[in-house]
Amino acid sequence: MAPGHNSVLKNRENDHFLVCHIREKNFTPAPEPSTMQVRRLFFSEDGWPYTEGEIYAGKEPHNFSPEELYGFYERIDLVPMLPQGISTATPMKLGENAYYEHCSICGTWEMTGENRIKIAYGPYEETATVTMIFDRQRKKETVALCGVRKDGTAFWAKKREDL
Question: Could you check whether the bond before residue 83 is cis, i.e. omega within 30 degrees of 0?
Answer without folding.
Answer: yes
